[in-house]
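User: Last request for today: this protein with adenosine-5'-diphosphate, please.
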Amino acid sequence: MTIRALHVASELYPLLKTGGLADVAGALPPALIERGADVRVLLPGFPAVLAGVSELRTVAQLGRRFDTPGVTLERGTLESNGLIVYVIRAASLYDRPGNPYLDDQHVPYGDNAQRFALLGWVAAQLAQQLDPAWLPQIVHAHDWHAGLAPAYLKAAERQHGRALARSVFTVHNLAYQGIFPAHQFGQLALPDDFFSVHGVEFYGQLSFLKAGLYYSDRITTVSPTYAREIQTLAQGGGLDGLLRQRAHDLSGILNGVDYAIWNPAADPLLATHYTATRLAGKVACKEALQKRFGLAQKSDTLLFGVVSRLTEQKGLDLLLGAVPEIVKRGGQLVVFGTGDPALENGLKRVAHAHPESLAVELGFDEALAHTIVAGSDVIAVPSRFEPCGLTQLYALAYGSLPLVHGVGGLADTVLDASLENLADDLATGFVFERFEPAGLVAAIRRAFALYGRRTEWKATQRRAMRQDFGWGASAERYLALYRELV
Ligand code: ADP
Ligand code: GLC
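Assistant: Here's the final one, the structure of the complex with adenosine-5'-diphosphate:
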């Protein structure tokens, strides 16, 4: 039996991306389709989405919704792979330059509740045959932006007195909870009793994330360790109680890598290609990176790279404290990212103090991300918490040994170069357990020590590159979940 599933998300690579959610939304649907499912995606009509989807045709006129006139649902395809995409056209909500969530002062748009309620509402309409030609059996909503989809579905089921599509809600990051003042509940057109502890209410406010967790039929998150962590008081963000109650409906399914995009043997964004057995090209990539960032062109310097959103989550404050350790040992560090202005300024300041060894660039650029992942010897991901993390998976594929904090998906995907793991041919990177300077510095020292033993370093690189984190196994697990539900 072919299962029809609608994925609901706010970003999708290659159309629009601020982080790993876009990579997942871009790669998981095709992986499911390859395994026989009939999957389509629903996105808000941000300018980059409208510009990137081909052959857009109107599916339905929705009139005035959430105080917004002239809303329409359109359907088109992605040229790269033929994926069918539904797009909500609502110019006054979505036609804004820049970030999909924040204005140019980094402040969330004042009407985010309406902007993303519309996304969830349209998903529930599609489950009521809004498109005469296609009816999903599964609505798979991603993160708080799509969190109201399961709530609107439950409301519609009550109204029709029969079951509609089953819903899956995937938490990519519990730290973003989509919280709004209680008075905005009235604008959402949900039944009054949904504003309750047993519903969307969260400490007197309204939470889209909680709606997804409460009303979905199944909850997944993006790694097994994170699935356990979020059920604890310390890491549950106030939702651990609900998550524990729903523990039997909650599972962790690791994200995958799209090796059609992240493969050093064929990556069109690289200066030179290389493979696990022919690593020479990686040296050329390192030289290109040093040159790009104005660092000394030395091939035997241990080069650390960071590609990251600059938020508290990512732990770069801890890494900044360890810069003297890297400099003292003759290493180099490249940091590329964008985000929190305070972190951006802090990074720039430290870079100023160490111009030969530390280069910081602010911005978001897919090509530069590939250049750094390929050209670095080590990719650092010292996150305080990390639901899955894709950067360390890309680093493994590129033989750039990940240096990570042992939490969430980082703990599930990187094995430390301890003596035992090296002896057992298991090591793939460097893992520190406690989020403290001493732990990070010790991991940095392990990286320098291994780099000094070139044969073992190369063996570890090759092992890293041989790891298979493709979407196959994870797509199968999502399919199994869908089958259980329908
Ligand atoms: P998160 O989703 O929390 O940001 P992930 O590691 O899952 O973390 O995914 C991050 C994704 O965003 C990766 O594809 C990474 O390459 C990309 N990325 C992060 N910062 C930048 C940037 N400044 N420029 C280009 N790509 C970036
Ligand atoms: C979130 C998480 C990250 C995860 C990504 C995709 O942004 O921070 O860990 O890899 O979503 O699931």
